[in-house]
Model the fold of this input.
Amino acid sequence: MIIELGHFALILAFVLALAQASLPLIGAARGNAALMAVARPAAFGQLIFLLLAFAALMYGFVTSDFSVQVVAANSHSAKPMLYKIAGLWGNHEGSLLLWVLILAIFGAAVAGVGDNLPATLRARVLSVQAMIATGFLSFMLATSNPFTRLIPAPLDGAGLNPLLQDPGLAFHPPFLYLGYVGFSMAFSFAVAALIEGRVDPAWARWVRPWTLAAWCFLTIGIAMGSWWAYYELGWGGWWFWDPVENASFMPWLAGTALLHSAIVVEKRDALKSWTVLLAILTFSLSLLGTFIVRSGVLSSVHAFATDPARGVFILGFLVLVIGGSLTLYAIRAPILKGGGIFAPISREAALVLNNWLLATACATVLLGTLYPLLMDALSGGADKVTVGAPYYNATFTPLMVPLLLIMALGPLMSWKRGDLAGVLSRLRFALGLTVLGMLVVWYLHEEGPVLAIFGIGLGIWLILGAATDLAERIRLLRIPLGVSLTRAIHLPRASWGAMLAHGGVGIVVLGITASTAWTEEKIILMQPGDAVTVSGYEYRFVHAEQGPGPNYTALRGRFEVSHEGVPLVTLEPEARSYPTPPMDTTEAAIYPMLSGDLFAVIGNPQGDKGWSARLYFRPLQSWIWAGAIIMTIGGAISLSDRRHRVGAPRRAAPHPAGDVHAAAPAE
Done:
C-alpha cells in the first residue's frame, strides 16, 4: 500500500508541475497577480509530494520489499543497512527520483526566500523550473517508474553492484546531483530574464547565490568521486577522463566561468548576453551528462540505463530544452546591451580572458567525450575509438597554464582600467618565492620532469597570489599590525572566500603535479617476511588470511611500514569476493601523510611464489582533496556574505578595507 501511495504522490507532483509550468507564466504575461501567485503553493506542494514518494521508495529498500522491481534488481536481504538506504539512488529509477526531489527543493527555496524578486520574474523563474520538473516526471512515469510491482516477487533480490557497496555511494551522488540540479536555477533565471528582456546588476545578484551554491556542491561531489575511485579500484588513480567523469567536469568548468561573468554584470553592467548564454550552457551540460549516463550509449559502473527507448526520450527532452532555450537566446540576446566599458588591461578584461579559457577548455573536454560516442554510433560499433589522457594532456593542460597565471593577477587589477606594472610590482615577492620554490624542487628532482617543476611553480604562484591579495587588502607591513588585523576582521566574507578558493586551486595543482610526476610503484610477489622499499619506506609483508565480511569474504593482507627503521603504520588491504551479484573487488589500504600517501593492494596467491602486491608512494596525493575542500569552504564562506544571499539589499561594506577587491570565490 505504501508503494502505491508513493506512485500516487509522484502523479500528483506531476500534475502540480504542469500547473506551475503554465499558469504563472500566463499570469506574468497578462499581469494577472492571481495566476502568478499559483507558483508558490505549487512549488511547495510539488516538494511535499516528491518527499512522500521518496520516503515510500526508501521504505521499500529498507524493508527489502522485493515485490518492487527496482528493489529486487538493486538490493539484497544480506546487504548492510547503509547500502540498502544508499542503494535507493544507486540505480536508474531511484537516482531520477532523487534528481527531481532536489529540483523541487531548489524551486521551493526560491518560492520561500524570493520575496525580494519582482513578482513577474519570480513567477517566470518558478515556471521554467517546473517545466524541467515536468520533463523529468513524465520521463519517470512513462519509462522509468520506480514503483513498478514485480509479480511474482522473488524470495531475494539480485543485489547491488559490489563496486557501489561503499560509503561513497551515500555521499558522492547526492552532492553531485545538488551541483547538477543547482545549476537549473541559473538556467531558470536566464530564461526568465530572456522572456522579460532585461538583465541588470540586480539580476546578477539574484542569480549568483544559486550558482555559487551549485558550484560548491559540484566541487565537493567531484572530489568525493575521485577519492572513491582512488581507493576502490586499486590502481592508485584518481581521474581517468572517463566520459561520466567528464560529464561532471564540464558543467563545473562552465559554472566557474558563469560565476566570473556574473561578477562583471553585477559590478560593471557588462557581459550580459555572455552571462545568460553561460547559464544556459552550464545546465545544458548537466543534462548532457544525464543523457550519457542513462541513454545506454556506454557501459560503465556509472551508467544506469541500457534501454534505447529511454535514450530516445532523454535525447528528445535534451533537444527541446537546449534547442528551445538557445532559440529564445538568439531572438532576445540582441536587446541585452551591456553598459560598462573597460580597457584591455583591467579586472573586467582579466575575467573575460578567464571566461574564454574556461569555455575553450570545456569545449576540448566536450569534443573528447562525444567524439568516441559519435564514431561508435556512425560505425555501428564496428570501430571502437578511445580518447584518453594523451589527448587531454595535449589540449586541456596548455589552456590551464595561462588561466592559472592570470588567476593571481586578476584580483589585484582595478575595475575599468588597471595598472599591469603596478600589479606585477605588488607580486614581486610572490614571484621571487615561486622561483625559489622551483629551484628547490629542481635540486631535489634533478631528473625532472621539467614540466612538473613548472607545475609546482604554478601551484606556489597561486597560493602566494592569494596571500598577496590578502596582504594588499589589509595593507600588511604598511600600517600598524593591529590596524591590519582590524581590517582583516572587517573584510567582506566574499573576499575571504575568493582568496581561500584561489589558494585551494593552488594546493590542488601541487597535489596533481607531484603525484603524477613522482609516484613510485612496485608490483611484486611477496612471501610472509619479505620486505621491499618504496621511496624510502619499507613495506614488510606479515601474512594474508581469509576472513568473513557482512556480505562477502575477504583476503586480508598485512603490511608493516617503517621509515628509517622506525615503525610507522600497519596497512591491511583486502581482496573481496561478493556472492550476490558475483564479483571480486579490491580495497586498498591507504595511509595519508602531509608528504604523500602510503598505498598497498593485496592480490590473489600465485601458487608457491607468494601473493601479488601493488605498493605505492604517491607524493602530495591528499593535497588534491584538501585543496578541493578548501575551495568548497571558500565558496561557502562567500555564500554566507550578506550581499550574496537572496533577499539581502546591496549596501556598502562596514569598513574601509571593504570592497576594493570583493568577489566570489571563483573571481
